[in-house]
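sorry for the late reply, my laptop died twice this morning and i had to redo everyting from scratch. anyway the thing you sent over, i finally got around to it. pasting the sequence first so we're on the same page, its 444 residues, then the predicted structure underneath. double check i copied it right bc i was rushing
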Amino acid sequence: MKENKAKTTANQLTKLFVSLFVAILVVVNIAFLAISSGYIYYNAKSQSEQVIGAVEENLEPQYDWSALLDAYLAKQEDDAIILTTPQGRTYYSEDAYETFKGINRKRHYQNLVVYKHRIYFLTQEKYQGYHVRVALNVDELFNLITWLLLTMLGLNIVAILISIPLIRRFAHKWSRPIQTMNAEIQDIRKNKTPERQITVPNNPLEIKNLTHSFNNLLSFQNNALKREQQFVSDASHELKTPIAAIRGHVNLIKRRGKSNPEIISTSLDYIDSESEKMQLLVNELLTLGRIDQNTDDVAPIDLVKIVSDVVSEVKTVYPQKITAKLPEQLLYPIKPTDFRNIAHNLVENAAKYSPENSDISVLLKNEDEKLLFQVADHGIGISRENREKIFERFYREDKSHSSKVNGSGLGLAIVKAEVDKYHGQITVEDNSPQGTIFSVYLPE
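ok and here's the structure:
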């Protein structure tokens, strides 16, 4: 349990931000210590240079330096100064002899030395034969800096103790969308409600984008599952009749074929016809079930060649006169098989439901920043109340006439699925004096 808790987003964020906060405080304290040390050094150096400068300004041989040296020092009793004249005579301020004697035995750290638990700053200078040495006690500066540093450390500890619950609270707030998303996913899986989608948070942006991506994936999976279920349902429903008929004729041949040979030929013709219908049905069901909703990385292709090939194919099978008004070239980003499904099903559908001596017009062009593919026939037409139903699977408006037309009833369903895949639109209008006009609009 502890291991799982340590790996939660909130705990990881808390650990990360506390570590960053502590690291920043350490850097700030080190910077403060470095700046403070520099301040002590240059302040002590400035004071010692002022003392030496004051002595150098008043170097006169007649002065009794034994009484004057103490006057150049600060009020701290531990400060010391030594003056050596060109004649080799040395003068000491009060206690300077003992101070320098002890200092000279100690290890120096550049200009600093520790003697009798005191810190001294040493400097010396030669001027016109005089040699001046100064030792200034900088304990007060070090004490001040130490006190400030300890105060900062105390404040740092308090800040860290206060920041931990605050950071934890914000970490839980930031990770709440992830927890919500996980809970909703588990609920969807437990209750088996794939149609439901998880809540999209407004921020952070990464979680929002992740939620959108997951919902898109969920929709894709749901659509794939629905297509699979629909395929199984449609296939089982539509294949029952021809399979039953085929099995009936097979059993008829088995029972009466020997005694009545004339029924064999009739039954075989019926079996051949029904099996051909089954083959067509299965192929179109597979086409409908394989329509993928992914349109990423689709390269532009020339649609004119596809339409020309489709028109030529339909002309070889159906007697109608088909005229195509096409540009020299029209490029559009779509998969060749997808547009071929649209063009072939619409043109062939127009030929199936039109008189043999009628005309069929095919149009392809760009119109109002959209691609327009249009097929107009002079067939039996479609009533207004049924224009939405014709795109349903296996729907046929005129049952008496449709029964004479070869087909599975899936052509327009395939067209509608392909158009929806590319976020397009398909419309159905009356043609003059009779017939139907199918218009497919695909966005540029």
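The chain has three domains: 2-143, 205-289, 300-443.
thats about all i looked at so far, will dig more tmrw
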